[in-house]
UniProtKB/TrEMBL annotation:
Name of protein: SDR family oxidoreductase
GO biological process: bile acid metabolic process
Keywords from the UniProt entry: Oxidoreductase
Pfam short name (any one): adh_short_C2
PANTHER family reported in the protein's UniProt record: 3-OXOACYL-[ACYL-CARRIER-PROTEIN] REDUCTASE FABG, SHORT-CHAIN DEHYDROGENASES/REDUCTASES FAMILY MEMBER
Entry-linked Gene3D superfamilies: NAD(P)-binding Rossmann-like Domain
Oxidoreductase in keyword set: yes
InterPro entries hit by this protein: KR_dom, NAD(P)-bd_dom_sf, Sc_DH/Rdtase_CS, SDR_fam
Highest taxon listed in the record's lineage: Bacteria
Domain (Ketoreductase) ranges: 9-189
Family from the record: Belongs to the short-chain dehydrogenases/reductases (SDR) family.
GO molecular function, one term: oxidoreductase activity, acting on the CH-OH group of donors, NAD or NADP as acceptor
Length: 255
């Protein structure tokens, strides 16, 4: 028995055009899932689709505004027409900001909360309802952050948004459990990507390394095992409401 076989499953990756989302999408496809990749600009997901297909997998790209429920409902209809239904939802859109607390404007707060938290709520409404009503179980995986608890300095709005993701994860794990729909979160440590380059000054990097026992950044490929594990009902069928850290020991560090 292959614990990690995802053949016959369909995965929707919200934010699949991102560095981390793309790497995790490739892993889901490698283990047999058909993958729907989304992004605001559909062309940004195309290189990931090509890599999946060149490795023998199946993927399609969709232009989706993750903060629009109408877009997400349209996406569900289109993916269901392609494969018959959705079994796995991976929520990983994300934006960040490094402004000091007193300089954060309402518009910036709203943007970060919309992309990082509201999009997760909406996707869980749309795809969670589909999974519950379909009656075949499912797996929802939310990308959180080590910044969610305790919060990191300089990223107030981002930390607050990811704390909301943790709360939603555990709330929905409880709500969806009777329908065998599992809801978990991955808490990555520091993985250099487009959204966090602005805050990775030389001083900041030194502080991160000082608090990371492995003394290095993570590689996006190091998230692949975690997402396949949580996606597979055989491997993690009794796992829901969990916060899986992939952080080089950052969360275990004190002094």
């Amino acid at each position: 028995m292959d614990l990690f076989d995802l053949k016959g499953k369909t995965a929707v990756v919200i934010g699949g055009s991102s560095t981390l989302g793309g790497a995790m999408a490739e892993a889901l496809a490698a283990y047999g899932a058909k993958v729907a990749l989304t992004g605001r600009k559909v062309e940004n997901a195309d290189p990931i689709r090509k890599r999946i297909e060149s490795a023998g997998g199946e993927a399609r790209c969709y232009a989706v505004e993750a903060t629009s429920k109408a877009d997400l409902e349209k996406l569900l209809r289109e993916v269901a027409a392609w494969t018959g239904g959705v079994d796995i939802l991976l929520n990983c859109p994300g934006v960040n900001s490094a402004k000091p607390f007193f300089d954060i404007e309402e518009e910036e707060w709203d943007r970060i909360m919309d992309v990082n938290a509201k999009s997760v709520m909406l996707a869980c409404q749309v795809f969670g309802k589909h999974m519950v009503e379909r009656g075949l179980g499912g797996s929802i995986i939310n990308l959180s952050s080590v910044s969610s608890a305790p919060p990191l300095s300089r990223v107030f709005a981002y930390s607050a948004s990811k704390a909301a993701v943790n709360n939603m994860t555990q709330f929905l794990a409880r709500e969806f459990a009777p329908a065998r729909v599992r809801v978990n979160a991955i808490l990555p440590g520091f993985f250099p990507a487009e959204q966090n380059r602005a805050i990775l000054s030389e001083e900041r990097v030194a502080s991160i390394m000082g608090h990371t026992p492995m003394k290095r950044f993570g590689d996006p490929a190091e998230l692949q095992g975690a997402v396949v594990y949580l996606a597979s009902e055989r491997a993690s069928g009794y796992v829901t409401g969990s916060m899986l850290r992939v952080d080089g020991g950052f969360g275990a560090m004190t002094i």
